[in-house]
Amino acid sequence: MKIVFFTDLDNTLLYSYKHDIGRAKRCVEVYEGREISYITQRTDTLLKEVLTKMTVVPVTTRTLEQYRRIRLGVGSIPYALTCNGGILLCGGKIEQTWYKESLELVADSAPQLEKAQKLLEEDRYRSFEVRNIQDLFLFTKSSQPQASAKRLAEYLDTSVVDVFCNGMKVYVVPVAMNKGNGLKRLTAQLGAELTIAAGDSEFDIPMLACADYAAAPMEIAAKADKRRLSSARRAVMTQAEGVFSEWMLEYVLRMSRFAAPVDSS
Question: Which of 94, 114, 186, 245 registers the highest number of CB atoms within 10 A of its CB?
């Protein structure tokens, strides 16, 4: 059976230096000479085992540049989805047909992204430049992210674009450019018979909902649109003790042993 495991990265598989994940850890990201992200030694061991049993696909909102800073050091990972699923890497190289299709998917969102750009440029709380990420979505930072997001939601057509906050970061993302669509597109391309997904944030909800099996920490329930999450055929919500990445990978291995394809008919 061909199993594909789609996993978010930050706070799902790896953690920034700001998080206490214990001493048994290994650096996986260096930026400007500083160690900024780590995985636990147990995560390292489990991930290597997972890689022997299924295809692992990192799925991240990180830009291409940010993703390429990560050095997991667990062996070959041939596929990755960056920019919230908008860019597919195959063997580390951009798959141009995928990217062209992604641009076509968000074409109808262009007027709303232009409007959002102007709103963010004028936002008195904005504390960072407004970045257009590969013509796929917008990103900035705000000293009052909830206030900035509220203003955006009031003026934008939220049936076309989603507005997200993640800490001080504010995103405006076309509805079509979500991780769930990325999962579905790549599942079809790879011919996966069963999919497993893991994530920790609102960005991950569409991906969790589309997978046959899904794992997420309990706190996501407070942020989630429960109707969207309930469309998942099997979803595990847990307040894992210890480090979530370790619990999550143990769950993935259990599913690989006992799971059968879900009948979607």
Answer: 245
Judge if pTM exceeds 0.85.
yes
Q: Distance (Å, rounded) from C-alpha 36 to C-alpha 26?
A: 11
Q: Take residue 158 and report the two structure tokens written for it.
A: 């939220």
Q: Of 63, 78, 192, which Cα lies nearest the Cα of 132?
A: 63
Q: Each residue of 133-191: pLDDT tens digit?
A: 999 999 999 999 999 999 999 999 999 999 999 889 999 999 999 999 999 999 999 99
d(CA 55, CA 77): 8
Pairing mode, strands 161-166 and 87-90 = unpaired
| DSSP H/E element including 246 | helix 244-258
Distance set, CA 200 to CA 23, 56, 90, 97, 244 (Å): 22, 17, 25, 29, 9
Q: Are 82 and 102 in contact (CB under 8 A)?
A: no
